[in-house]
């Protein structure tokens, strides 16, 4: 309310009286305050609610700088969900996910007076994150599972994780390819420093072991189509490769191009499964079978949980673990050995 008071050249108490509709304010002063509210772009309902609750009605969202579809999808969902609850979103991004950079960004959002924060970057140091967010309702978004980020990772301050089961992604993709009769499945993974990539790889390896299949060497990409094409070029030269699970759709697109360049047909010679279900997946030259991640639903769930933590701090809260979904298209088919 300080911004409105300063703009109108009145006290915060006067702003409070105007917003609450009290009559002990002159008409001139009332008009000055209302004009300041309009000029600053505030909503009267939001200001009134903030006065009653003591909240700023602003939520912080910390993301990793990226143009990836996943980031755009969940940030849009978070912004929409926050608006539905009457909150604004203060967004910040980091180019480095080392604990120091993440903690500094959390402190930056704290200084902006946010009521709570969604941390949508890979978490490598749970203790450091808990310390940085001490006293601030926080939701950790993403990660592999509750094993990577516990449901309550802080020392009693009640921060929670909202995740998609990344190991399940690896299981769904690998089981599908094995059920089609492939002897084994090759994996093009994301960077080993990402919990998401590690989770998908773990699910892939566990499924191969469960079915008694040999585990081929893992090829590490960087999520990009270029890295998928580069690694796909290596795989395309190997006649024994008949099934590939890529840790992202973008890498899968690169793999598809590499296979075509080498004269390998999809899915007749090689079946390919991606991860994410980006919009382009359904419209690729060979429509991509993939494992869908419910980014929008997860973004909404993160904000719903955070708002509940802010407005009902005495209630018991729990993290959310969502299930991925296999989406069957044209890039996979039964294996025709020989």
UniProtKB/TrEMBL annotation:
Gene Ontology MF annotations: DNA-binding transcription factor activity; transcription cis-regulatory region binding
Keywords (A to Z) from UniProt: DNA-binding, Transcription, Transcription regulation
SUPFAM superfamilies: lambda repressor-like DNA-binding domains, Periplasmic binding protein-like I
Keyword Ligase carried by entry: no
Stretches assigned to the HTH lacI-type domain: 1-53
Signal peptide: none
Highest taxon in the source lineage: Bacteria
Gene3D superfamilies according to UniProt: 3.40.50.2300, lambda repressor-like DNA-binding domains (1.10.260.40)
One Pfam family of this chain: Peripla_BP_3
Name this polypeptide is given: LacI family transcriptional regulator
